[in-house]
Write a structure and sequence with these properties.
It contains ten helices and 13 strands. It is of the alpha/beta class and 291 residues long. The chain has two domains: 137 residues, Rossmann fold (3-Layer(aba) Sandwich); 151 residues, Rossmann fold (3-Layer(aba) Sandwich). The strands form two sheets. Strands 1, 2, 3, 4, 5, 6, 7, 8, 9, 10 and 13 form an eleven-stranded mixed beta sheet that branches. A two-stranded antiparallel ribbon has the order 11-12. It starts with a strand and ends in a 6-residue tail after the last strand.
């Protein structure tokens, strides 16, 4: 692992909240914290107050103030800043590739409206090579830095990188990992008499799904024996089940698939959790390489 947690700052309050969350995470993991801002000067023909030097000065002051605030709260933390002269998306994608995680702020307005995620963040989430954590302002009554980590598990499709990240996060917190798996009864027309007989012999669909989930978690239980694991197994919509079990979580971990070379997108469950979860959400590519 690189031992670096990077935060993308833009001078807004929700980015400051993300920096505070990342600082606590870096201190817990004994990692360095890197605060960055991507900026490119684009002069226009429209007359306005300000110039290149003034804008750059504002950006550097913003980074210095963020570093000073974090240092006051976490004096032992190794904190660095950098002004990256590049467009935000490529700059943040490069940061995500080199860090253990990239942390971005999200405007959280509750479960009804959900998270308002900007176009830059969405592009980074779709294409990042490493984990990206979206942090919104905590809601009233929501515990901050709660120890429980919730991960959505889809046996056979959830990659090792997703479970590795979730188990590692739970181990660092000394808390519980809640592995959530939602299942549904397949259409009757998809089952022939032979298939139904095998299901009956195996004590039904529920037992089969439980065994598949247990098998998916076994190697990670063995690797992280100190982590208490709760297997949350429910019938229903995957996004609804995951959201209902993450209201009091400190972190929710979901995966992101790569379907074709050069084509990456967020699945419907990941998209729903990003927009409606009240806890920070870590989006981990299934094919994320080890750091």
């Amino acid at each position: 692992m690189s031992g670096i947690i990077t935060v993308g700052l833009d001078g807004t309050d929700h980015a400051a909240v993300a920096a505070d969350w990342a600082a606590q995470e870096a201190e817990r993991r004994r990692s360095a914290l890197r605060l960055v801002h991507a900026w490119v000067w684009r002069p226009t023909d429209v007359a306005y107050v300000g110039d290149r030097a003034a804008e750059e000065r504002w950006v550097r002051n913003m980074l210095d103030e963020a570093r000073a605030r974090v240092a006051r709260e976490h004096p032992s933390l190794d904190v660095t800043t950098e002004l990256i002269v590049d467009d935000p998306v490529p700059a943040l994608l490069a940061e995500a590739a080199r860090a253990d995680m990239l942390v971005l702020g999200s405007r959280g307005y509750g479960t009804l409206t959900g998270y308002l995620i900007g176009s830059v963040s969405m592009k980074v989430l779709r294409h990042a090579a490493g984990p990206v954590v979206m942090v919104g302002k905590p809601h009233s009554g929501t515990p901050q830095q709660a120890p429980e980590v919730v991960v959505g598990v889809e046996p056979g499709q959830t990659g090792d990188a997703v479970l590795e990240f979730a188990f590692s996060a739970a181990a660092e917190r000394g808390g519980t990992l809640r592995a959530v798996h939602a299942w549904s009864v397949p259409p009757a027309l998809a089952w022939g008499p032979g298939s139904l007989y095998l299901v009956d012999e195996a004590n039904g669909l529920e037992q089969i799904n439980r065994e598949v989930l247990a098998e998916a978690l076994k190697p990670w239980r063995d690797k992280y024996p100190q982590v208490e694991v709760v297997e949350q197994f429910e019938i229903g919509s995957a996004s609804e089940v995951l959201l209902s079990n993450s209201a009091d979580a400190g972190l929710v971990v979901v995966g992101r698939r790569s379907h074709e070379a050069g084509l990456r997108r967020l699945g419907p469950v990941t998209h729903a959790v990003l927009h409606h979860a009240t806890a920070p959400v870590a989006v981990v590519p299934h094919d994320c390489p080890p750091k």
